[in-house]
Amino acid sequence: MTKKKMMLTGRLAIVAAVLLLVGGYFMQYHKIQKNIRTASENLAQLQATLDDLTIQEAALNSDLEFSMTDAFKERVARDELGYVKQGEIKFVEEGK
Questions:
Q1: Concatenated DSSP letters for 10-55?
Q2: What is the reported pTM?
Q3: How open is the CA angle 24-27-33, to the nearest 5 degrees?
Q4: How far is the C-alpha of 16 from the C-alpha of 12, rounded, in Å?
Q5: Is residue 3 assigned to a domain?
Q6: What is the pLDDT of residues 46-76, one digit of tens each?
Q7: How far apart are CA 34 and CA 92, in angstroms?
Q8: Distance between CA atoms of 10 and 17, rounded to whole angstroms?
Q9: What pLDDT was estimated at residue 96?
Q10: How many domains does the chain contain in total?
Q11: In terms of residue numbers, what domain contains 79?
Q12: Are 84 and 90 in contact (CB under 8 A)?
């Protein structure tokens, strides 16, 4: 082999190696970007779930606080147990 051919072969080998490295870098970069997108979507879903659960927690806490009041106890006594206050008259429909 002549010296020129050896230099050309060496340069081609270097160019090929650089192209392989750059190609590998871009493949890895694409894979990382895809993982980041997937993680971002998962984070958004988890945040939405957390928001929903936070709203549910607030509603449950409100219900719990109301269940400890006299107004709640009176409502249960009237609606579910059929109690009336002294001096009140309870009307009952026939057939019920």
A1: HHHHHHHHHHHHHHHHHHHHHHHHHHHHHHHHHHHHHHHHHHHHHH
A2: 0.56
A3: 140
A4: 6
A5: no
A6: 999 999 999 999 999 999 999 999 999 999 9
A7: 68
A8: 10
A9: 56
A10: 1
A11: 27-84
A12: yes
